[in-house]
Design brief:
By secondary structure, the protein is of the alpha/beta class. Helices cover 30% and strands 21% of the residues. The protein contains 17 helices and 24 strands.
């Protein structure tokens, strides 16, 4: 509804009715902006749960659930609702097809039967653990078919906006006219059209990344979360929800089934489903241990960079990696080179004083991008030309150090000038449909080498790829995060899964060949990794054995931020005194990135087996941010 607020009018959301007002002289409502209600009844309850569970303002939570194109349309508005140019995703979703179901393997059929049984019972928490290429998508399609037969709708979450065209195409072939896509690269009017199609029941299947969990489906029966381990399901702005946890709560409210899928399930999810199977009748782990059609998994090779004389920062592809690339290209196959770091170089450093050129707003070095010949901050967006002299000592001796995807592409072009290369990262896939164009070019053989970040590790089905080269397996391992081993294992398995040609190989450059995350990834041993990682988490009291909350104090003045964090941490310890080791308050300490966008940040971490006594004590004032279950 539209209501007066001071000297202006604003849009408000009605979440409930009261027989009397808390204010003595309420002003009248000007108009209703939408009728019928924007949210389904179960979504209103979901908004309240998210606000309470993630310590977020209820108004911000509701705003996050409603697309901007819907929020901005006032009652009686004459604004044009249709898009001028339709995105590739919506074109694919509207394509009329008639494609028969593929023949299911016994393991797939068993998984589909389990979903069908759960749909009949209107409850279920299922985790589909299938190796790469095992046919998880076919299970999703069959499960949605069973859901639609019952007259109910479904939500399909994918980890990246860029994956939506691939998934949409597959699903539109099976469910013509029933698909709606929801993601940030649609125009506001496109998203409003899709949202309203779902709200009116004109489409029954919503596909999209994280925020598609809020699709207004009147009778929701099934929620599928593909690649459920992906960190992209965590929202980094208020409300800082995790879509997997929201999916479970949404299913409880709507009487729906949750089906998570991954070749590398998160340790938290796998442990929870294994534990819940004994306590909750609807919880099960479903296994797809073989690739579809009996296709073998790729052979894996460790390249120990401590013993490769051909490797350096200026030559990031070692001798063995170059040799393997030559062999694959000579055999007529395609090669993927994976490095989860953009840019040409990590930073520019002065050879005289040793200082790197830093961001003026953040406590990080600027990354050098060769295409634009600029230094850029990947945190605040600051960009500048590479200076002629050192900002610290004025010496004219700046050198770029390290390598990103741009450097890898340049190196591949230098080593293999006779072949065509493509690069897929956020610098080359900036427009709505550019990702799809790169994927399409590589799929049809217009290039022989694809260099990319994590965007190449998910969802690709490329039968000509015979070699996947991981340029730096240690990158994630060095990150100061208790999930570092899990992220490393998942990235190696996922990107290795893109090798689909007969006799395919995965080559991994690493200086930590004996680390269990690297070793077990190369053995395709998820269960072995899960057991080792779970023991580490238990010893250190990390999830799933404890829950975490990060509280961050921020201010333009460093001392002000530190003082605020210190005062809060001391008060928190006093209020939680006597609870023993079940609640631990750590810090304050400087945040990992101490200064971002001109603000200094100090962090307090809370570890607890139960957050109930902690939640009422979390700050809600200006200068503090709260992240429950942080990543």
């Amino acid at each position: 509804m539209v209501v007066p607020f001071g000297k202006r009018t604003v849009t408000g959301y009605v979440l409930g009715l009261s027989p009397k007002s808390d204010y003595p002289s309420p002003r009248p409502i000007e108009s209703l902006a939408d009728e019928p209600p924007l949210l389904q009844p179960y979504q209103v309850e979901l908004a309240r749960w998210i606000a309470a569970h993630y310590a977020a303002p209820l108004a911000e939570t509701v705003r996050a659930m409603i697309p901007p194109g819907i929020r901005s349309l006032k009652s009686g508005s004459k604004r044009r609702r249709g898009p001028r140019v339709e995105s590739r995703d919506r074109t694919l979703a509207g394509a009329a097809q008639d494609v028969a179901s593929a023949k299911l393997t016994p393991e797939q059929a068993s998984a589909v039967a389990a979903v069908g049984e759960a749909l009949q019972q209107r409850r279920g928490r299922l985790l589909l653990h299938g190796v790469t290429g095992s046919g998880k998508t076919e299970v999703y399609l069959e499960a949605i078919g069973k859901c639609l037969e019952l007259g109910r709708g479904a939500i399909v979450l994918v980890p990246e906006v860029s994956l939506t065209p691939q998934v949409t195409g597959r699903f539109a072939e099976r469910f013509a006219g029933q698909i709606a896509v929801l993601h940030s690269r649609l125009t506001p009017s496109e998203k409003a059209l899709e949202w309203n199609r779902l709200r009116r029941g004109e489409a029954l299947v919503a596909i999209g990344p994280r925020a598609a969990i809020f699709a207004p489906i009147p009778d929701l029966g099934l929620i599928i979360v593909d690649e459920e381990h992906s960190i992209t399901y965590k929202q980094l702005r208020v409300p800082r929800y995790h879509a997997v946890d929201v999916a479970h709560r949404l299913a409880d409210l709507a009487g729906a089934v949750v089906l998570l899928g991954s070749a590398t399930p998160s340790v938290v999810s796998y442990e929870a489903h294994g534990r819940a199977a004994g306590d909750f009748e609807g919880a099960r782990i479903l296994e797809l241990p073989q690739r579809y059609g009996g296709e073998p998994l790729p052979s894996m090779e460790i390249i120990d960079m401590r013993r490769d004389d051909g490797w350096s920062f200026n030559r990031p592809l070692g001798e063995r990696m170059v040799e393997l690339c030559r062999e694959e290209l000579a055999a007529g196959g395609q090669v993927i080179l994976y490095l989860n770091r953009r840019g040409l170089a990590w930073y520019a450093r002065c050879r005289k004083c040793g200082e790197a050129v830093g961001c003026p707003n953040c406590s990080v070095s600027l990354v050098y991008h060769g295409v634009t010949k600029t230094l850029s901050c990947h945190y605040c967006g600051h960009s500048q030309a590479l200076p002629q002299q050192c900002p610290n000592c004025d010496a004219r001796d700046l050198r770029t150090v390290g390598f990103g995807t741009e450097r890898i592409q340049a190196e591949a072009e230098r080593l293999f000038p006779e072949v065509r290369t493509l690069r897929l990262d956020r610098d080359t896939a900036r427009t709505r449909d550019s990702y799809y164009g790169i994927w399409e070019d590589f799929s049809r053989g217009s290039a022989d080498i694809l260099v990319g970040t994590s965007l190449v590790a998910k969802g690709w089905d490329l039968p000509r790829v015979g070699l996947v080269g991981v340029v730096d397996a240690d990158q994630a391992l060095q990150y100061p995060d208790f999930r570092a081993a899990e992220d490393t294992f998942a990235s190696l398995v996922q990107v290795g899964g893109r090798a689909r040609r007969s006799g395919s190989r995965v080559a991994v450059q690493t200086m930590n060949p004996h680390h269990y995350a690297v070793r077990l990834a190369l053995e395709h041993d998820y269960h072995g990794f899960f057991a080792e990682e779970l023991a580490v988490r238990e010893a250190l009291n990390f999830p799933p054995f404890r829950r975490l909350v990060d509280v961050t104090a921020s201010a333009a003045d460093d001392e002000k931020a530190r003082s605020a964090a210190t005062a809060y941490a001391e008060a928190l310890r006093r209020n939680l005194a006597g609870r023993g080791p079940e609640v631990v308050v750590l810090g304050p300490s400087p945040a990992f990135i101490h200064r971002v966008r001109g603000e200094y940040r100090w962090s307090i971490t809370i570890k607890a087996s139960d957050l109930d006594p902690v939640m009422p004590l979390l700050p809600d004032g200006r200068g503090f941010s709260v992240d429950v279950d942080p990543l």
